[in-house]
Amino acid sequence: MKEGDSELGNLLPDSVGSWEIGRGDQIYTRETLYDYINGGAELYLSYGFKRSLSRLYRMAGEPDIIVDLFEMENPQSAFGVFTHSRETIEADFGQGSQYTPGFLTFWKDRYLASILASPETPNSRGAVLQIAVAIDSAIVGEGSLPRILALLPQEGLAEPSIRYFRHHVWLNSHYFVSDENILNIDQDTEAVLAKYKGEGTGHLLLLVQYREETDAQVAYERFVSSFIPERVRQPAVQLEDGRWATSELIAKLVVVVLNAPTESEARDALEEVRVHINQ
Amino acid sequence: MRQKGITRRDFLKQTASAAVGSALYLGTTSQLIAAMKQDKIKVVLVRHKAAVDSQGNSGRAVLEQMLDDAVVALSGEAKPELAWKKWIQADDIVGIKTNVWSPLPVPTELEDILRDKVLKSGVDERRIGIRDRGLLGDQIFTSATALINVRPLRTHYWSGVGSLLKNYITFVPRPSAYHDDTCADLASIWKMPLVEGKTRLNILVVLTPLFHGTGPHHFNPQYVWTYQGLLVGTDPVAIDSVGVRLLQAKRREFFGEDRPLNPPPKHVFLADTRHHLGVADPAKIELIKIGWEEEVLL
After folding, report:
1. What are φ and ψ of residue B88, in 5° steps?
2. What's the CATH number for B8-291?
3. How far apart are CA A118 and CA B48, in angstroms?
4. Residue A97: closest CA among chain B residues belongs to which residue?
5. Cβ(A185)–Cβ(A215) under 8 Å?
6. pLDDT tens digit string along A50-100?
7. What mean pLDDT, rounded, does chain B reach?
8. For burial by CB atoms within 10 Å, which of A20, A58, A118, A199 has the most?
9. How close, in Å, is residue A116 to chain B by CA atoms?
10. Is CATH 3.30.470.10 the right assignment for the domain spanning A2-138?
11. Does B15 touch chain A (CB under 8 A)?
């Protein structure tokens, strides 16, 4: 950790009303992020974290406000971290935001902002919103969304559930498949997982895009042989919990349907992707 | 390299492990095995409606009564002092491994109570230490003959849950070395000579657990709930297993759907099946519930 950084620091206000900077800014790099957010660092590092700035705002009689501004390697990474725990679709700040009492986060361009005021008070809430406005204004550019998102069929899509990642552990975070990386998801691949409305609880759709078709072929075969070997001779596979799964290889894309309540929903979901991609 | 590893289907297939697999890994308790009545590990859940007040402050008298009730139920002794004397001898060097994570630390009142219990067991004050960080530079912890493990329960970005097993990570010089595969092998820390066989009592603080996390600090006050409890036992795996079930239940209640812990806290399961440190299978755990019953969730 080191103190001060004009480039990142310039994106944050020096003060907000009576809230003043409470201590020197702290800068963290890939090597030092563990010192700041030990267990949490893995998430940011896996998304191409470059550096972050932590600033504390203080006002007498009020809880401190902690602002963390993360600079990621590209906008897609910032979006990916943002979606990791997104619950709702809001766009009050940046290119997507989420507010819950005491905590506001948003992403814009290659930046992810986190503003924590705990416990929230009427004063701190106002300050949090002002800080967010200031950061939003200071980040001039906007970034593009991951291209793989366009491959998700829109009908039935529960948009807040979209999770974008390039590290296999985040698949297991949302739906445990295997402790091994049987889809070969890494920094050269893009993966998106989303919930779809259907019968009952609906199903999950996972798309993994590989750099080359041969990579996709290898991953598809590994996934099928490891997880749903029955897929070789049948269109969908009923798992031991009664739910259905299926998968298909489409050029550089591996399509996986998970947790479908019926065989027909699993098959239909696959067909939806085929149709959508060919449109 | 293993090509397949342990898959979701492996968990679902293992009848004996179905409860563990589904409850700990997959976020459902629908297949819990009916409890068997023998060879079970005791875990005590004690709750008191007034353990934490509306300002988040803990009352020492209430906490002490809760702990006393728990150790009596756990030990089978008639009085708490007798239970403590079973676990702690006068010539012990005792490290109380606490947790100071600023949004949700162990209440200082509880730390004080534990220190007093050890003192009353006959241990000299100079042979008692309470610490979270810097254990390897603390002579009490490096020469301890007995450990007491206490920390709050919370979800955790990388390991799924921060609970008793994970609390010993500060016994290693480089905690990130245990981050592989989302901390799958945290239990191996418990096999280190510095630690192995020394833990006499484990207390998972569930006064105000964090059941979901967002943001870089993995903390959001919206996801803290006042549960008013302590989970007490001698098997850290069993207590963590109960803690995981509690978080899953709260998440299901709050979100209105199964919302598996993110990532799955498989280190709890593997502490049982791979490291044989304790028991994670709910069917092999006897949960003794004492005190306030409202919204107990377990």
Report:
1. -125, 125
2. 3.40.50
3. 25
4. B215
5. no
6. 999 999 999 999 989 999 999 999 999 999 999 988 888 888 999 999 998
7. 87
8. A118
9. 8
10. no
11. no
